[in-house]
Amino acid sequence: MDRDPTDDDAETETPSDAVTRRRALAAGGAVGLASLAGCTALDVATGDGPAEFAAGTATVADATLSESGYELNEVSDEVISREVEVAGQTREVRVTNTVAEYDKAVELFGERYQAAVFAAVTTPQIEVLGRALNPIAELDTRERADLILSRYEGVGDLERGSEYSTEVLGGDAEVVVYTADGEIEGTGASTELELHIGEPVGVEDDFVLPLAAYPAAFSDGENVRRMMNGIEHEPNEAE
């Protein structure tokens, strides 16, 4: 994960840098260990060191980016750590999620601001009594929407709308469309937002969650579908 800017960094950043050079979605507490709190029979009951689970990486193909107009903002890791009770002893469990974040900017008063956001969140499957857990599935679509809405300010009036199915990593994923009011961060400009919140898709040892939000005036639904269709997955080779 990117380090937080120091005071020296702040002095050299332009206003647009402060907005567009940001950490990826703060999915950590919600996604990484959401299902571990009540699990006391993990398949990691033996061993002295931390039990570690690391996701691979889901990114969007370059050809898709050129068609959709989105650009890569950053790919970052989020390490979540929690102590759990396992077979009568305390054991540290570490989960590393990967977030690939893309954006489409808007120019206001000569500055560039992140207006549209697309993200692919990858979290590892966790074995509990030989069965794979999907921590993301513990979140309902409203909670998943909160992950992407963190990119905007003054959000309100979230309403659930239509649904559709599209291909993600070779399978069909259900997507729920929401609308909301909000402000593009750093601009004070209010806009109606449209959100596309996908269901997590299992691939190899991971689950991948696609998320998108953009000003409704962009009419960017087809591009969001292209981005979802263009997701590629690389497994964690260390596994």
Structure summary:
With 239 residues, the protein is α+β, with helices and mostly antiparallel strands. Helix content is 17%, strand content 51%.
Oligomer: single chain
Count of strand segments: 13
Mean pLDDT: 79
* Biggest sheet layout: 9 strands, mixed
Helix fraction by DSSP (H/I, runs of at least 4): 10-25%
What string, H for helix and E for strand, traces the elements in order? HHHEEHEEEEEHEEEEEHE
Gyration radius, rounded: 19 Å
Q: How much beta, percentage-wise?
A: over 45%
**Residue runs with pLDDT of under 50 for 5 or more positions:** 1-24, 27-41
Q: Roughly how many Å apart are the termini? A: 20 Å
Count of DSSP H/I helices: 6
Shape field: globular
Q: What structural class do you assign from the helix and strand content?
A: alpha+beta
Explain this structure.
With 239 residues, the protein is an alpha+beta fold. It is 17% helix and 51% strand. Strands 1, 3, 4, 5, 8, 9, 10, 11 and 12 form a 9-stranded mixed β-sheet that branches. Strands 2-13 form a two-stranded antiparallel sheet. α4 (62-68) runs antiparallel to α6 (221-229). The longest helix is centred in the middle third of the chain and has 9 residues, at 141-149. The model is unreliable at 1-24 and 27-41 (pLDDT under 50).
Write the layout of secondary structure elements.
Elements: H1 7-12, H2 15-20, H3 28-31, E1 51-54, E2 57-60, H4 62-68, E3 71-86, E4 89-108, E5 111-124, E6 126-128, E7 131-133, H5 141-149, E8 152-168, E9 171-184, E10 190-198, E11 201-203, E12 206-215, H6 221-229, E13 231-234
Parallel strand pairs: 1-4
Antiparallel strand pairs: 2-13, 3-4, 4-5, 5-12, 6-7, 8-9, 9-10, 10-12, 11-12
Helix pairs in contact: 4-6
